[in-house]
Design brief:
The chain is an alpha/beta fold. The protein is 44% helix and 12% strand. Strand 6 and strand 7 form a beta hairpin. Helix 16 crosses helix 17 and helix 17 crosses helix 18.
Length: 468
């Protein structure tokens, strides 16, 4: 089946040239041929191939010379052009030199057809990923949108830039932030902008799986491995093979399972529960947590060695209250999604509702905003904009950073607030009442002074409060 990808083959030996052209054409690529570097250069300019397969030793202009011209930024050729060099036995140093000059890969003669086919497929996937990234960058510059993520604030632009840099790689990423800030959305964007985008994306919430079942869920099991294992079952790693696995709330995974997870990540092999043999797995592992990971390690919830293995890159998502300038475009994007989801035609977001939203604390972050928009869309008439009358009763009248209750001894916790956020609100309000007396606040809350200090350190690291 033709895939439309253009491959230029440059080879001075006629039989080898014909054989390569027939072989590569048979795999569905569009091919063109040239008999030396000069002709190859001329045809590259005229035909604009995606991949060039070239011999190194040729008359008039050799493979190194051709590669140098093809790699020149001023050549006018696509910057995503991949060059694969063919080298004779004993010319490995030339191939190494070619790689330093920007060649995608090299292959020794006689050509191993299986290896060549794999190289061409990988080069095609990389080219597609780079093109998709460029489209994403252009859309980001024009609209402040990266994948399904929206934002033009400095904080979000920095996050988008980091996602663009690391998405094409296979490195592990630890995504942190309060509940509802969009950690899974970041993981999906990393997957969608990677060469693995056509493979599965699997997300598993470690906190939602009973401790007795989590190893089975993650690694799979054989029939009879334990009571109730009536059939073989693939785990999350197998389901995500070739793609991306997100382990959400990684700090809630039992310590023993964390040790096994570390081994799978490092060795890329797993053994189902009850199995006698291991199997290879190719999975990019992403992890997420709403805890401060440093505190999770200190408190024994997260193994230090697993933390260092996962935390090759860290993407920290700020709470919505810290980048409210993104609220309006986020609300518009969510409105469009909800119109499609519910078959509605709501016409935008009125200024009156945006004013109320900007004054709200958003303890549930982007998730709370999405739920608010969805509720409003269902209540609104087609053709009319969302307005303040479509907000939940009492919206904006509960505690927020912008407007505190008159009675400072009262902590108003709106429905939808997470347990962690409610705890934070209670601790900070108690400190206000005690005049920042941490010892007295700890006594009132019934916790140790050490716990109080740990919590305050966690909030400082998250940038939540200008604590004294």
């Amino acid at each position: 089946m033709e895939n439309g990808v253009k491959v230029l083959i440059v080879e001075d030996e006629p039989h080898a040239l014909m054989g390569l052209a027939e072989l590569i054409s048979g795999w569905g690529y569009r091919t063109e041929t040239a008999r030396d570097g000069i002709e190859g250069w001329e045809k590259a300019l005229a035909w604009d191939p995606a991949i060039v397969v070239t011999d190194l030793k040729m008359p008039r202009l050799d493979g190194i010379g051709l590669l140098t011209k093809l790699s020149d930024a001023g050549s006018g050729l696509n910057a995503n052009l991949a060059v694969v060099v063919l080298t004779a036995m004993g010319s490995i140093q030339l191939a190494v030199d070619a790689m330093k000059l920007g060649a995608y890969d090299f292959l020794q003669k006689p050509v191993d057809s299986t290896r060549l086919r794999t190289i061409l497929a990988n080069a095609t996937r990389q080219r597609d990923t780079e093109i998709q990234l460029e489209v994403a960058r252009r859309r980001l510059r024009e609209t402040g949108v990266l994948g399904s993520m929206v934002g033009s604030s400095l904080a979000m632009r920095e996050i988008f830039g980091l996602i663009e840099q690391i998405a094409p790689s296979n490195v592990s990423v630890l995504i942190t932030g309060e509940s509802g800030t969009g950690k899974e959305l970041v993981a999906r964007t990393l997957h969608d902008l990677s060469p693995r985008k056509s493979k599965p994306f699997v997300a598993v919430n470690c906190a939602a799986i009973p401790e007795t079942l989590i190893e089975s869920e993650v690694f799979g099991h054989e029939k009879g491995a334990f009571t109730g294992a009536v059939e073989r079952r693939a785990g999350c790693f197998e389901l995500a093979n070739g793609g991306t696995l997100l382990l959400d709330e990684i700090g809630e995974m039992p310590a023993g399972t964390q040790a096994k997870l570390l081994r799978v990540i490092e060795e890329r092999k797993l053994r189902r529960l009850g199995a006698r043999t291991e199997q290879d797995v190719d999975v990019r592992v992403l992890a997420a947590t709403n805890r401060d990971p440093g505190m999770a390690v200190a408190e024994g919830h997260l193994r230090a060695d697993l933390f260092y293995r996962l935390n090759v890159f860290n993407i920290h998502l700020p709470p919505l209250r810290q980048h409210l300038e993104d609220l309006a475009p986020m609300a518009e994007a969510m409105l469009e999604q909800m119109n499609q989801k519910h078959g509605r035609k709501v016409a935008g977001v009125a200024a009156s509702i945006l004013d109320r939203m900007m004054a709200h604390d958003w303890p549930g972050n982007a998730r709370e905003l999405r739920n608010t928009i969805e509720r409003a869309v269902i209540l609104c008439q087609d053709g009319a904009p969302l307005d303040a009358g479509h907000l939940p009763p009492g919206f904006g009248k509960t505690q927020s950073h912008a407007a505190q209750p008159q009675d400072a001894s009262i902590v108003a916790v709106p429905v939808g607030t997470t347990v962690d956020e409610a705890e934070r609100m209670l601790i900070l309000r108690t400190l206000e009442v005690t005049g920042q007396n941490k010892t007295r606040a700890a006594e009132i809350l019934g916790v140790s002074l050490k716990t109080m200090h740990n919590k305050l350190k966690e909030y400082r690291l998250a940038g939540d409060e200008p604590l004294q």
